[in-house]
Amino acid sequence: MAATRQLSALVALCLATTALAHGHHDELTDEQKSAPIDAILWIHMALQAFVWGMLFPLGMVLGITRSRWHVPIQSAGILLTVGGVFLGHLHGGRSFLKSFHGTFANIILLVLLVQAVLGVYLKLHIHEKSLRPWMVRLHGVVGKAYPVIGWAQMLFGAVAFRGFCRGGHLGQCAAHYIMGSAFIAYGTIMAILLLVGEGWVRRSGRSPEWWDSWVIMLWGIVNTFTEHHGGAWSVKDMQHTIMGVLWWAGGALGIFLARNNQRNVVPGLIIILTGWGMSNHAQALMISTMVHSMFGYTLMLAGITRIIEICFVPNAAHLDPPSGDNQSENTLAEGARTPVFPPPDPEALAKASAARAFRHLPPFLLVASGVLFISGTDEELKFVSDMGMDHVTYILIMFSLAFTIYTMIVSLIHLSTVTGKAATETTENAIELRTPTTAKWYSRVPTAEAQSSSNHHERQHIIGDDEDE
């Protein structure tokens, strides 16, 4: 009954928010455009950024690990989102033109309602052998889409706030926002695969470059036929179209070379060539030229570090010393005092830690490239130029934002290894609660003294417990 009442309340809130009338107009006067932003709207933006940029992704990870904190956090996120929608409709001050930001907000409320209904249904534990397994999958798919939905809505909100991407600027905005977001997604997926996904990669029987090459080839096919819209060919049309050809041609080669689970450098080489092309993109404003150049250099560096990681950085799993109960001083296994494996080589430990440290470079640089490309539209850079800001300050602001985003990414990846089911399985399979200093992707290069001290003093920190479904 409690779950039913909560669901009814959520439905009522969603209906109320969609029924609110708000002053979005087809045309605005100069007074409406220049009116100050009131505190309610600032609270709306800060609240929704917190919920969709931090709270919902956190709840998503806790759901994947089956932590008992998943339901409370996601429930709080839903309530805060609905409250934020009310604030977005009730603010005063500046008025805004109608935009997709408001339309997409109604779609998000529908998604939240569907997810809440699925969550209540799963709590009832009915139709265990028929409908429930499919609903579990659907609930997981919708939940994992939260970061993408939130990211898209935050971009729509920024566009609506500044009044960008209208008229002839829509095509450029779409290109920059879609491709920039794709680079950030690429960096996120690469971070997952390189930091905690090696087991999945081995089980799939495909090298990471096989997956990369397929995405690059398919994206190149789309890009080849969508960059020119008839009429005379401009220099930009030629450059963008030939980049599409580069991607599908190189992607096809990468797929062939990645057969039989072989690694290759083709995706990294394509990233380098793309960065070189973008760094030489002609722009109308000097600040735009400098931002595009920095985007290109960052993308080239991402490709170079990717090639180095493939060719010269050894697999950390191959360098980690074997671990298990037979090597523990506290184990009950017979012959525990005589290690089955030779003692770990300090040089091998240093190489393993250095490999794990280097693996952060390619995904971070891809994230930074994506942020720079999203921020490189003509309208935005003209606005920045009119403010009197130079390219150095602007680029450093974008890199600061990239650091923030990547911090969130790696924090969530780490959280997935120490919460809920993941943490419980780790502790149930071990007799002692000792933190393995050589098995963490974020370990520093160990010294003999630090390693000896950590073996005696560090203990594993567990957040959350299993939630029985």
From TrEMBL:
Region (Disordered) residue spans: 445-469
Organism from which the protein derives: Cylindrobasidium torrendii FP15055 ss-10
Keyword field contains Translocase: no
Name the UniProt record assigns to this protein: Cytochrome b561 domain-containing protein
Annotated transmembrane regions: 39-64, 71-92, 104-124, 145-164, 176-197, 209-226, 238-258, 265-282, 394-415
Amino acid composition bias (Basic and acidic residues), ranges on this chain: 455-469
Domain DUF2427: residue ranges: 25-125
Pfam family, one: DUF2427
Secretion signal, residue range per the UniProt entry: 1-21
Keywords of the record: Membrane, Signal, Transmembrane, Transmembrane helix
Domain Protein YTP1-like C-terminal span(s) in chain numbering: 150-415
Keyword Transcription: no
